Amino acid sequence: MESISIGLLGLGTVGAGVVKIIENHQDKLAHQIGCPVKVKKALVQDLEKDRGLAIEDGILTLDPEDVLADPEIDIVVEVMGGIEATKEHLLEALKNKKHVVTANKDLMAVHGPELLKAASANECDLFYEASVAGGIPILRGLVDGLASDRITKMMGIVNGTTNFILTKMTKEGRTFDDVLKEAQDLGFAEADPTADVGGLDAARKMAIMSTLGFSMNVDLSDVKVKGITDVTAEDIEYAGQFGYTMKLIGYAHRDGEKVEVSVEPALLPNEHPLSSVNDEYNAVYVYGEAVGETMFYGPGAGSLPTATAVVSDMVCTMKNMRLGVTGKSAVNPQFEKKLKEREEISSQYFLRLHVQDEIGVLAKLTSIFSNHGVSFEKILQNPLNGAGYSEIVLVTHKASLDHYEDILMELKDYHAIHSIESSYRVEGGEKG
Amino acid sequence: MESISIGLLGLGTVGAGVVKIIENHQDKLAHQIGCPVKVKKALVQDLEKDRGLAIEDGILTLDPEDVLADPEIDIVVEVMGGIEATKEHLLEALKNKKHVVTANKDLMAVHGPELLKAASANECDLFYEASVAGGIPILRGLVDGLASDRITKMMGIVNGTTNFILTKMTKEGRTFDDVLKEAQDLGFAEADPTADVGGLDAARKMAIMSTLGFSMNVDLSDVKVKGITDVTAEDIEYAGQFGYTMKLIGYAHRDGEKVEVSVEPALLPNEHPLSSVNDEYNAVYVYGEAVGETMFYGPGAGSLPTATAVVSDMVCTMKNMRLGVTGKSAVNPQFEKKLKEREEISSQYFLRLHVQDEIGVLAKLTSIFSNHGVSFEKILQNPLNGAGYSEIVLVTHKASLDHYEDILMELKDYHAIHSIESSYRVEGGEKG
């Protein structure tokens, strides 16, 4: 090969980062691959927009076919986003024997298996490291680094916006709305932050990681999702008093053959390695039966970090091209998907209640829990001045989700409970 | 291939872990590779020793040739340790077209380039992920995950024994000797702990990582090494007062074309991700120009974690065997080695002095520093009751090593300085 030609679908922040890295690290790339790499075409929506890049004439195009059908283009790099139309583009690229590198978690979480199948059928590589946790090489860690181990748990802080918000709320005692506004002003949060703060973005990444880590096709719809919009400064304050840190945790757990995947705000012991992952940083904690605890930490987003993952995937593809072994990297899932039932899911729980100031309330509360076989690890009662009721905050020992939900139902029916203020999982107390 | 046969050189704790993982994860391995894997021979020193393993008859041998010359053995796994004789064994294995996986940092730090050359000449794979930071897939992270980036800094806590000792000293205010004894009793430190506490073990790992991360042949002899034997509880206490944590840091830095690699006890800001890596855990912090800050965390040693890395390397080799592309993974260093000169090395420094209680001492001290263009970031003076002198603890702003060493010389000559109690680098205040 004299040179390798890249076609870009999209030239936003990540696309611009890819162009910059290819330019700045041309020597390193050529040293590893054995030939130069150049961007031949880039699909954009606006030919005139200033992207802060010097781009040669003839590279930008408005027509996807200029990328997808150009016989000289070896690798299509998809950084345009979107799901259905983008999937069609990539299927066409693969049919035309072009390798694909994508940073698109939305697409991979929904259509990953179909696209990987098409890649394999066309002897093409399809890599997507950048779709999860930006610059952190976590997918490679799961697939190659822990290839010989059996992963039983993954816990991820995989959304930078929510981690930034929760970090600020924790350190400065501020409210969600107040910090969200600051994050938007700083550009850490989108104008429409729904996918981030609602947990959907993290859920997509957890679906992708669970599919690889557990070797079974976990769909986005299998992930139970709860966002951080209801998290209050009080919850975080009480969590701190109990020695816990509040994080939006993607939680994937395997017990025997069955798995559970969720995204929700949860409390972690302060000593847990994820508890000190702050601001917009991401990290994924992985527990393997043989390796024990590992953690991968880094920037979860951003133009250059994400572009690093894209170009590293390109390097991998280009090495495979030179060796004539493209389309062989993906391993089909080993197991049929089996999801845990409600009664098979267990955790510790944090609960904050407002109760009437009456004799016998605490005794009644305790008996509701103990009737379901659930006991407390920690409990704290505070009078709420002038309100006529008290605040009770507690952390249970490990309990099954169905027992815990039955308890919540009974609490709601008990007249002395004024309100259930909040309820969270407490995770990370056990390693495996 | 009907099956892949492994020959083990050594069957100590890591070797036994390899046997266990191959047995326990046979299904996962076969799924990935497409055929079963079995251990055919294992070189040991004692046929009768109880290893806590059920081993079939005929597998153990006292003769290296039974492993190295057996035409049915595809991969030789070296977990016996040692340097010169072991090198000869591996060269023979490679000559006999056997792929090699080794966990031997001592060997790779000294003879890595020669062995890699022999592997390439014989179209064999030679992988050594387990030689650095046990179960953490850091070498793969450097080579594949950050393939497209330019790494400028690596900081590693890469020795579990010393991290265990420093963590205990920090949390419990105990002395080095006291904690070392406990670590030996618990099996976290060897009976002869010299290579660990003296920094040599960490230096070997830093030589291997620098060679890969900077793409130049960094030898063990290029690494400046200082161990933790002189670290006192007072140093750690003062560091804490200033907001720093003491760690044995492997430090590798690239400035333009020149690099510096050292292992020494150093102070890190408490907020630095490495500062919360405690007990026997390891972690490697990597800064890349594009990706920014990343960190890889996990168990740095132990039978099963290290064996995980060995077997993952085996999986990689076996995939390459099936694709017919062995011996192509290693990339020769891109750059000629250039080491920084003393005046090109710069850092902040922590210094603890005992000075006479005289008028004008602090002014003189300040002038010695400022004459060399070095100023203080923090300074603290404490009377030492009854001793007739005071303790001064200070942290400088960034200064070049030659200026700092000149200052130390002048301080030694100044009559009012009773003693220079300790001096450490302060690292991690800057990211890049």
Automatic annotation (TrEMBL), chains A, B:
<feature type="domain" description="ACT">
    <location>
        <begin position="350"/>
        <end position="425"/>
    </location>
</feature>
<dbReference type="InterPro" id="IPR002912">
    <property type="entry name" value="ACT_dom"/>
</dbReference>
<dbReference type="GO" id="GO:0050661">
    <property type="term" value="F:NADP binding"/>
</dbReference>
<dbReference type="InterPro" id="IPR045865">
    <property type="entry name" value="ACT-like_dom_sf"/>
</dbReference>
<keyword id="KW-0915">Sodium</keyword>
<keyword id="KW-0791">Threonine biosynthesis</keyword>
<dbReference type="InterPro" id="IPR001342">
    <property type="entry name" value="HDH_cat"/>
</dbReference>
<dbReference type="InterPro" id="IPR016204">
    <property type="entry name" value="HDH"/>
</dbReference>
<dbReference type="GO" id="GO:0009088">
    <property type="term" value="P:threonine biosynthetic process"/>
</dbReference>
<dbReference type="GO" id="GO:0009086">
    <property type="term" value="P:methionine biosynthetic process"/>
</dbReference>
<comment type="pathway">
    <text>Amino-acid biosynthesis; L-methionine biosynthesis via de novo pathway; L-homoserine from L-aspartate: step 3/3.</text>
</comment>
<keyword id="KW-0028">Amino-acid biosynthesis</keyword>
<comment type="similarity">
    <text>Belongs to the homoserine dehydrogenase family.</text>
</comment>
<dbReference type="GO" id="GO:0004412">
    <property type="term" value="F:homoserine dehydrogenase activity"/>
</dbReference>
<keyword id="KW-0479">Metal-binding</keyword>
<keyword id="KW-0520">NAD</keyword>
<dbReference type="InterPro" id="IPR005106">
    <property type="entry name" value="Asp/hSer_DH_NAD-bd"/>
</dbReference>
<keyword id="KW-0560">Oxidoreductase</keyword>
<protein>
    <recommendedName>
        <fullName>Homoserine dehydrogenase</fullName>
        <ecNumber>1.1.1.3</ecNumber>
    </recommendedName>
</protein>
<dbReference type="InterPro" id="IPR036291">
    <property type="entry name" value="NAD(P)-bd_dom_sf"/>
</dbReference>
<dbReference type="Pfam" id="PF03447">
    <property type="entry name" value="NAD_binding_3"/>
</dbReference>
<comment type="pathway">
    <text>Amino-acid biosynthesis; L-threonine biosynthesis; L-threonine from L-aspartate: step 3/5.</text>
</comment>
<dbReference type="Pfam" id="PF01842">
    <property type="entry name" value="ACT"/>
</dbReference>
<dbReference type="Pfam" id="PF00742">
    <property type="entry name" value="Homoserine_dh"/>
</dbReference>
<feature type="binding site">
    <location>
        <position position="190"/>
    </location>
    <ligand>
        <name>L-homoserine</name>
    </ligand>
</feature>
<feature type="binding site">
    <location>
        <position position="105"/>
    </location>
    <ligand>
        <name>NADPH</name>
    </ligand>
</feature>
<dbReference type="InterPro" id="IPR019811">
    <property type="entry name" value="HDH_CS"/>
</dbReference>
<feature type="binding site">
    <location>
        <begin position="9"/>
        <end position="16"/>
    </location>
    <ligand>
        <name>NADP(+)</name>
    </ligand>
</feature>
<keyword id="KW-0486">Methionine biosynthesis</keyword>
<feature type="active site" description="Proton donor">
    <location>
        <position position="205"/>
    </location>
</feature>
<keyword id="KW-0521">NADP</keyword>
<dbReference type="GO" id="GO:0046872">
    <property type="term" value="F:metal ion binding"/>
</dbReference>
